[in-house]
Amino acid sequence: MIVIIPARAGSKRIKKKNIKLFKGKPIIYWIIKELKKNKRIKSIVVTSDDKKILNLCKKYSVSETIKRSKNLSSDKIPFQRVIKDTIKKLKIKNKNRQKILVVYPCSFFLKNFYIFKADNILRKNP
Fold first, then answer.
1. Burial of residue 96 (number of CB atoms within 10 Å: 0-12, 13-18, 19+)
2. Phi-psi region of 7 (alpha: psi -120 to 50; beta: other; left: phi over 0)
3. Residues 14, 20, 22, 27: is their CA dihedral positive or negative?
4. Residue 95 contacts by C-beta under 8 Å, 6 or more apart in sequence?
5. What is the pLDDT of residues 87-124, one digit of tens each?
6. DSSP strand pairing (25-26 vs 21-22)
7. Which backbone phi and psi does 55 adopt, to 5 degrees?
8. What is the pLDDT of residues 71-89, one digit of tens each?
C-alpha cells in the first residue's frame, strides 16, 4: 500500500496548519509517525507546494516528497487531480494493482487499527 499525503501550504482558516505545533511537534509529524507503524504500508509520499513542509517530511523519513506545481495548489483544485498528478510522478510498478491510500496531514487522530481494518475489508471484497 502506498500512502499519499497532500499537504498544501495555503490553508484559509488556520495559516500553515500542517506545520502548526501540536504536543510540541508539527501536526504532519503525528500522522507520519502513526503511518510508519503499519507494516502493510510500503511507501509514504508527501506532495506539497511548500518547501518547509517537504523538508520537514524528509526529516521524518518519508519515502518520497514531491513538489507540487502552483496550478495544483489552490483551494479550488479537487484533491483527485493532485493525487492523479502525484501518481503520474511516482515510479510505481503495476500502478493498476497498487492500493493507494490518501491521508490528510491533519487527521492526526487516525489510528492504524482503522487502516488495517479497511485493508482487510478491501482484501476480502476486491
1. exposed
2. beta
3. positive
4. 87
5. 888 877 666 678 899 999 988 789 989 999 999 998 89
6. antiparallel
7. -65, -40
8. 788 777 888 999 989 988 8
Map residue 78 onto helix, strand or coil: coil
Question: What are the two backbone dihedrals, phi and then psi, of residue 24, each rounded to the nearest 5 degrees?
Answer: 85, 0
Distances from the Cα of 58 to the Cαs of 61, 63, 125, in angstroms? Answer: 5, 8, 35
Nearest-angstrom CA–CA distance, 8 and 39: 27
- Residue appearing with cell numbers 487499527: 113
Q: Residue 29, SS3?
A: helix
C-alpha cell at 60: 521524518
* Burial annotation 64-87 (CB, 10 A radius, 16+ → b, else e): bbbebeeebbeeeeeeeebeebbe
C-alpha cell at 85: 498528478
Q: Which amino acid is at 18?
A: N
